[in-house]
Specification:
mainly alpha; about 80% helix
Amino acid sequence: MSWFVLALLSAFFLGCYDLAKKKSVQDNAVRVTLFFCSAFYALFMSPLLLTGHCESLPLQSHVYLFGKAAIVGGSWILTYNALAHLPLSIATTIRALAPVFTIFIAVTFMGERPFALQWIGVAICICSYVGLSLAGRKEMGRFFSNGWVICMVLGTLLAACSGVYDKFILQRMNFDPLTVQVWFSIYMALWQFAICAVTWFPTRHKTTPFKFRWSMVLVAVLLIVADRCYFVAVSDPDALISIITVFRRSSVLISFFAGLLLFKERKSKMKFVALLGVILGICLIALGK
């Protein structure tokens, strides 16, 4: 299966994952929810390690994979906390900014030079976020000064860094995609456990109580499928991380409309215009390549 098709499949499952994630963190202890989602992910992936389906790795390779878990873990903490406090339709539209960040990182650190059409796409995305800020004021007050919006933007920036990092370890260092996914899941669970033990457990009686929800299991399953498609796509020597990131973020379509239909979030013409602007922008970014 081509990396292009795999990227689209990853986007579909990522959109479904966003819905399950929103259900899991809503009115819940976010850090513990993160740990349980990560623990289920690792639990479902660990049999592959025990049955010898993964390559053996030297210590240096494990350092690289732990680094990936740290980057994604930081992104998760920021975005999950933001998602618990923001409307899904706004949070996932902000997440669609990841391809723009990826292009800037690729230009700065990997020597890529976007074409004029891609720069036009970046400009359209930025203008769309100005429109989104105007729509968001009606629901949250001041948009760009909202702490949860800032958390979502920073989490999205870390996610973009993770995408470039994935290209480095899968294409340039030739890591096996399945091995990366299995060890990443284990290190992510350990990382989230440490964060819970240090930051949540001592103050658990003063914060939002934790409620176990079966949607946490669904989060793990959907993310496993989405990540599998993604890692295999990125490992293809012909794959372009900027294009994969663009199509992976098209999952915003599922999340956006589900936020309006399932979570009964406020409808707004400006939201739709902003979303269409983001979609147009990321399509131009893709076509420009």
